[in-house]
Write a structure and sequence with these properties.
With 148 residues, the chain is an all-alpha fold. The chain has helices spanning 9-54, 60-147.
Length: 148
């Protein structure tokens, strides 16, 4: 019995590799977003901690230190928001590349599946023809043998 060979198997392997690379790049971009979000969360926690510690304070030095801290937090927050916006743009671009690579792989896999089904049907048809030929030959041989 013949073995199924997909003519585009090498292309499928390349497309799978491209998809894997795109998925890894997307993972890195998402990880960068998560890292920035973690920094924003930590900054918010620090802000709340200082706010709680200084809320009842009447000392001018403490109030001034808190004010400076809040100003620094505001600057860091603005930078992190800017970084997050850039990271989201990168992530969306990587996601688009991954989706395109995924679709290419999916279409090739569907084509391979379709070709496999066609191959199997053809093999079944050939096998059935062969069985008919064997049956006809056997019947013909018996008829000739009886006739002698």
């Amino acid at each position: 019995m013949a073995k199924f060979v997909f003519e585009l198997e090498d292309v499928l392997k390349i497309r799978n590799h491209e998809k894997d690379l795109a998925q890894a790049e997307l993972g890195k971009a998402v990880a960068e977003e998560n890292r920035i979000q973690g920094l924003l969360d930590a900054l918010a926690m620090q802000y709340n901690t200082v706010k709680q510690q200084t809320k009842d304070s009447t000392e001018s030095q403490t109030i001034l230190s808190a004010y400076r801290f809040y100003q620094g937090v505001k600057l860091q927050q603005e930078k992190l928001f800017d970084d997050m916006a850039k990271a989201k743009i990168v992530t969306e671009a990587k996601r688009k590349v991954f989706n395109e690579a995924y679709q290419k792989v999916e279409s090739l896999e569907k084509l391979k599946e379709q070709k496999q089904l066609e191959f199997n049907k053809e093999q079944d048809r050939l096998e059935e023809e062969e069985m008919e030929d064997i049956f006809i030959s056997a019947a013909s041989w018996k008829t000739r043998k009886k006739g002698k």
